[in-house]
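Can anyone check this?
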Amino acid sequence: SEALQSKIPENGTLFIFARSEGVKRGPPLAVKRIPDIHFPYEFVLGAENTMVPGTVFDGPMVLAARIDIDGDARAGSGDIEGFVSAKPGDRNVALLLNHMTP
């Protein structure tokens, strides 16, 4: 979001995750790590990005994106993130990073 744009760290890493809708813990269905970010960033996340080979990439899901300060995928203080509901095959999904973790 414009409100957090000045808070984006120069050395931040962007992580984009997909989790089955309603799942809060455990490994995500899929993840993409982007070390050198420039916004706006166009992305594709699909079965080729699954964490565990053979995982079914299907059904309603929540996409999450996080700009991580320390390069670790776990959320930490000062990380910027956003969430949006989607399903495989959706196009032009806008994922707004509009929340800073305390």
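Reply from J.R.: I decoded it. The radius of gyration is 13 Å.
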